[in-house]
Amino acid sequence: MSDSMWQGSGVDLDAYLTRVGYEGDVAADLSTLRGLHSAHVDAIAFDNLDALLGRTVVPLDLDSVQEKIVRQGRGGWCLEQVVLMAAVLDRIGFTFTAFAGRTRIRSGSKLGPALHVALLVELDGEQWLHDVSFGAYGLHEPIRFAENERLDGDWSFDLVREPTGENVLRFLGPDGPVELYGFTTDVRYPSDFELLNHFCLTHPRSPFNHRMVLQRTQPKVRHLLAGTVLAEIRPGEPATFRELDEAEALSAPGEIFGITLEPGDIQTLRKTLAGP
């Protein structure tokens, strides 16, 4: 197998499939693309904990990402998960490119930095938006990349094209559409990921380096923990919010988000929650 910039030849595909609980056939087709997407978001949480554990580097090389997410049972933030997912798709034989989106749901702005990265997969003359790492409001399966495309079900989404040419992915909740992020299809490469990774880890305006942000997308319930506030989202219902006490917040990574932490990491998080 010839190597590519997505490092498919270096991924331990069997270990990954076991980690996400995927037991179906694997081929470069739409059924596999959907199945892997759903299995990944069900099993692997968005996890920014390294930024709170005093880690000065969040490595994006495939070996480090596999060690953390696949072997140690951790989650990862967007860039780590995209590195892993891209290697898996490359290994299977999919053709795709990466793009960067400007998150709107938390900032309310259309002009923030393009920090979120996802993939556009080409299949049979069509493109599919494949995004496993946006978190609690994100896609549970790929959506066809086409103007005014809609994905219906327990969780519904659509894509709209703005006059500027920017595409916007929206979550269609009970209170109306929620804009998740806007993007163009300008191609991004792994070298671009390193710059975004550095911003997320070190910049004072990064949303990910000063409080715990954990997110998980499961078939019937989605969870988002921001600091000590836990949001629970169910199909067709407004989100509910609850303030966690310290014990609940420290147990949440394992009990709610399926993240395996070492005892020392939990002690470090306790100090972070306590504040200066």
From TrEMBL:
Domain of life: Bacteria
Pfam families for this protein: Acetyltransf_2 (PF00797)
KW Transferase (keyword) present: yes
Single GO molecular function: acetyltransferase activity
SUPFAM superfamilies to which the protein is assigned, alphabetical: Cysteine proteinases (SSF54001)
InterPro entries: Arylamine_N-AcTrfase, Papain-like_cys_pep_sf
Alphabetically ordered keywords of this record: Transferase
Assigned protein family: Belongs to the arylamine N-acetyltransferase family.
Protein name listed in UniProt: N-hydroxyarylamine O-acetyltransferase
Species, as recorded: Lentzea waywayandensis
